[in-house]
Amino acid sequence: MERSGIFIFPPYQNTKSRRLTRRTVLQPATIFKPQDGSLAPEIHFPLQTVMVPDRPPYPRFVNRFDSREILLVVDGSCVNNGRHLREDEAPVGGCSFTFKGTPSISLDPPPTPITFPFLGLQSQEVSGSIAFRLEREGPDGEPVEHTSNRAKLRAVIAALQFRPWDAEGWRSVVILTDLEYIVRGATTWLPRWVKRSWKKPGRSAGKYANRDLWEELQSRIDELRTRDCEVSFWLVRAGDEYESRFIARTKEAARRAARVSPGMEVEKFTKLCGIML
After folding, report:
1. Once rounded to an integer, what is the mean pLDDT over residues 19-34?
2. Which residues form the RNase H type-1 domain (predicted)?
3. Strands 30-31 and 69-79: what pairing?
4. What is the pTM of this model?
5. Distance in angstroms (rounded) separating the CA atoms of residues 262 and 271
């Protein structure tokens, strides 16, 4: 049986994602439409134990109406976002995603413990909530300024890279977030940005931000699609008819990642890979 745990892959600036240009034929992700819009995400995707040969049972958030669809929860945070607090102090981003919970008979299960991979895994038990600092460099090796939008976008990429979701047998992965920038960007805006060569309207309007991460995300979406696994996005905003504990707890993990000790800082864009988790 394989050894389980989180493995940190070396920076891979030499393995670049496909560049998205005006000639690119782009098929974006889709928007998730709940089968029952009255259900909160944690009710729509209850924690279930998955039984498969050749490995121990493992928990996943599985759609109660579709047994081959799972939920991943993502969030990001940024201290001094936009340098609003201190102009001379660089913003610090934190990213997090939750891919499983702790089985419980309680109707209000306890929060999933948080694992911080870059603080050293020897002293931590790997949980279903992963949190890490946003890297100082993008996947192309270029230095980047941290923002809240970038932290959340990075969390989506990390969640989709973390496991070979298609190999687990899932035919659909739903990304849950409270940020419209992520959902609309991945499903609607990205093709428009690409057609405009990433240029905003107007002569001096500049370019759309985070091109490197959007290209990285689209590459992962395309990769999963070739393996018959679709990616969709579910937007649940604060103030909706139900408050999602999933989002609140994942958001707290991202905030902690942004605020923990300097030992958490990550310079190079790095891939986290969960094995037998």
Report:
1. 92
2. 66-259
3. unpaired
4. 0.93
5. 20
User: Count of CB atoms within 10 A of residue 15's CB?
Assistant: 8
For residue 1, the model assigns a pLDDT of 45
Q: What is the mean pLDDT of residues 116-128?
A: 73
Average pLDDT for the chain: 87
Nearest to 103 by CA among 94, 93, 112: 112
CB 217 within 8 A of CB 183: no
The tokens of 4 are what? Answer: 């389980």
Residue for token digits 């394989």? 2
CA distances from 29 to 23, 219, 229, 255 (A): 19, 11, 11, 27
Q: In which band, very low, low, confident or very high, does the pLDDT at 102 lie, cut at 50, 70 and 90?
A: confident
Q: Which amino acid is at 200?
A: K
Q: How many residues does the chain have?
A: 277
Output the CA–CA distances (angstroms, integers) from residue 180 to 23, 235, 236, 238, 243, in the order listed: 26, 7, 9, 11, 16
Strand-pairing partners, residue 113, are none
Half-sphere exposure of 24 (CA within 13 A, CB side): 22
